[in-house]
Write a structure and sequence with these properties.
single chain, alpha/beta
């Protein structure tokens, strides 16, 4: 696969969750607007967003824990001739000390129930004025459900964690966070 269209088609056919088009546009515009050079991505999947970010000039370090996803991402990065722009780390992102440099942008698009842990673990690696973008903040609109008892226990737990994370972002005075109704819900947090 060496076209974005083929990569998207592969994701759809193989039920790989990738960022929605509007979310991707927002992410890429943010990278351009803030002149982002180095990105740390939590959740590689097949490398779709990492490849898109690298194609507009960013250098990406991405962390993926699923062996099949990791292997496919490596293949896709090579197919796009971006091995010099994208480094994929095969590990659970909750493992400490996986990275040892500073980044302009942290992009979180992985296990929804772990967003706050990812935020706390990786924001120390952000440069001053660095940005955090989180995707899927509405979780298919489920974070807006009034009566959580209508949801399965597992989904209810995820929704509660995401809603708690939203409150955490609002109350975090080290960051200025804006919520956007784009794609599946996106936040942009700027380190003050």
């Amino acid at each position: 696969m060496n076209s974005i269209i083929e990569l998207k088609k592969y994701a759809k056919e193989n039920h790989v969750p990738i960022i929605l088009d509007e979310g991707l546009d927002f992410l890429l515009e943010t990278i351009k607007k803030y002149n982002v050079k180095d990105v740390l991505e939590i959740g590689t999947a097949i490398g779709y967003s990492a490849i898109n970010m690298a194609l507009i000039g960013a250098t990406v370090t991405s962390i993926e824990r699923d062996p099949k996803m990791y292997e496919q991402a490596i293949i896709n990065v090579k197919d796009f001739n971006l091995a010099d722009k994208i480094e994929i780390i095969f590990s659970d992102a909750l493992t400490p000390n996986l990275v040892n440099k500073e980044y302009d942008l942290l992009f979180i698009d992985a296990a929804k129930g772990q967003y706050e842990k990812f935020f706390n673990l990786y924001t120390p690696y952000l440069k001053k004025g660095g940005i955090v973008v989180c995707d899927n903040m509405n979780f298919h609109e489920l974070t807006k459900v009034e009566d959580l008892s209508t949801l399965s226990r597992g989904v209810r737990g995820l929704v509660k964690k995401l809603n708690n994370f939203k409150t955490f972002l609002i109350n975090n005075h080290k960051y200025k966070t804006t919520f956007y109704e784009i794609g599946d819900g996106i936040t942009l947090s700027i380190k003050l």
